[in-house]
Amino acid sequence: RKEVEQDPGPFNVPEGATVAFNCTYSNSASQSFFWYRQDCRKEPKLLMSVYSSGNEDGRFTAQLNRASQYISLLIRDSKLSDSATYLCVVISGDSSYKLIFGSGTRLLVRP
Amino acid sequence: NAGVTQTPKFQVLKTGQSMTLQCAQDMNHEYMSWYRQDPGMGLRLIHYSVGAGITDQGEVPNGYNVSRSTTEDFPLRLLSAAPSQTSVYFCASSYPGAGTEAFFGQGTRLTVV
Question: Do residues A109 and A11 lie in contact, with contact meaning Cβ atoms separated by under 8 Å?
Fold first, then answer.
C-alpha cells in the first residue's frame, strides 16, 4: 500500500464548477500536510498547507481529518487556470522530515 | 533571488555513461533532496540531506550517489546510466522540520538510450 494515495483522475469539469479531491495517508505519525500544484512539465509549487481546523485561501479550502487519516481540497468556482495536477504531500512522522508525495490528481477545467 | 537552480534542464545519455546533475540553492536551507518523477507516478525520493556532510537514502536510491560538502550544493551522480533511469529529476530545498514549504528546481529531463 502506498503511504499517500490519491484518486488520479482526471477530473474534467466546466468553468464555475466546484470540485473536491481526496487523499489518504497510512502513517498515523505523519506530522504536516500540504497540497502542491504542478503544471505540465513544471516543478511542483506549494498551494496551501492543511490544518486540522481547516483553512481557506480564496476559492480553495483544505481540510485534515487525523482520525480518518484523510485530507481534502475543495476548489470553488473553477477557472481555466486551475487546470493542473494537484499533489497531496505528507511530511513523514520520523525525524527525517521527508516529504512523501501522492501520485497526483489531474484537473481539467473546460470552457 | 535565484531560489533552487538545477542544471542541465535536458540531457541524453547512452547506457553505461555517468553524469552529475547539479543543484544549488541560495536560501540557506539545511534540507535538500532529490526526487524522480515518472509518468502517472508522484515524486519518489532518491536521496536527501539534513545538512552539510549528512546524506541518507530515500525510497529509490539504487544507481545514484550524492554528497553534501556545502549548504548550497547537493549534486546527484548517476554512476552507470540505465534506461530505467529515464525520468524527470527534481531537486528541492527547505528548512528542516514540520510545516515548512519545499522549493523545487525546474527539473532535469533525462533520457537514457
Answer: no
